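User: Can you recover a sequence for this backbone? Please restate the input before giving your answer.

Assistant: Of course. Working from this structure:
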């Protein structure tokens, strides 16, 4: 019972991270399902994709109502991300890919994601001004659409193979290459994560057994967190949260590596 309560409290935290900063949900979901709820890695990855996909879909609603979703940019990014997610699930199904290998790859992705979050959280006003200048320069380039498609494919493969939604990579790409503001990038990333995660989840259905009741209860708990997080974005600058969250992700990544 205590394990169930702790796991579902952490599921609310998954939702908060998705609602506030547009990412981190899958990065938290897999370790919670493996180390708190005691599931196997492949099952945890598949279930996390289902949970995060549904929760992201719910989280899109308040962002959409606030006008923070760019459908045009999402329509460019999402198709290759979905293709990548399917390819990632097929790679994970190869006989020589063990659960330990997937968790080690997952931990490495966590370390990379934490560095990106910490770096973004440390940006000064001067750095943010330079970022806007770089954004304006890149937005004029003709190859922007190709770069968005390429990054979408890469993020999708990561989603399918190790179960990360990829918000940590999607948001910077939307800001720099898509030329949209941070709040809009967060809302848009949720729509992309939805399609990405659901595609990955469907790709796993044929070769894993799922605990549907646990997945449903986790989805409900995380959805409450997402709606709360999306509401709080009216009052909280997500940039101020990224640094602390990045250090937390770094600690969890190191823990997973030590365990395997």
């Amino acid at each position: 019972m205590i394990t169930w309560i702790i796991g579902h409290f952490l599921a609310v935290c998954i939702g908060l991270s998705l609602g506030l900063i547009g990412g981190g949900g899958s990065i938290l979901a897999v370790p919670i399902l493996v180390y708190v709820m005691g599931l196997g890695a492949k099952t945890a990855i598949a279930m996390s994709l289902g949970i995060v996909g549904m929760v992201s879909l719910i989280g899109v609603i308040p962002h959409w109502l606030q006008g923070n979703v760019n459908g045009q940019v999402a329509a460019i990014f999402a198709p290759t991300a979905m293709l990548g997610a399917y390819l990632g699930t097929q790679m994970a199904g190869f006989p020589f890919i063990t659960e330990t290998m997937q968790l080690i790859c997952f931990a490495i992705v966590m370390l990379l994601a934490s560095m990106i979050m910490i770096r973004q959280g440390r940006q000064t006003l001067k750095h943010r001004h330079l970022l806007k200048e770089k954004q304006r320069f890149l937005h004029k380039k003709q190859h922007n659409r190709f770069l968005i498609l390429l990054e979408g494919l890469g993020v999708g493969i990561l989603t399918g193979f190790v179960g990360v939604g990829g918000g940590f990579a999607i948001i910077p790409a939307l800001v720099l290459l898509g030329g949209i503001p941070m709040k809009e990038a967060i809302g848009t990333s949720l729509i992309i994560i939805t399609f990405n995660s659901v595609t990955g989840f469907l790709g796993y259905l044929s070769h894993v057994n799922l605990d549907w009741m646990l997945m449903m209860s986790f989805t409900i708990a995380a959805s409450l967190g997402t709606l709360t997080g999306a509401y709080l974005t009216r009052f909280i600058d997500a940039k101020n949260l990224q640094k602390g969250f990045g250090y937390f992700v770094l600690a969890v990544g190191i823990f997973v590596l030590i365990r395997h």
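That completes the design. The first helix runs from residue 2 to 21.
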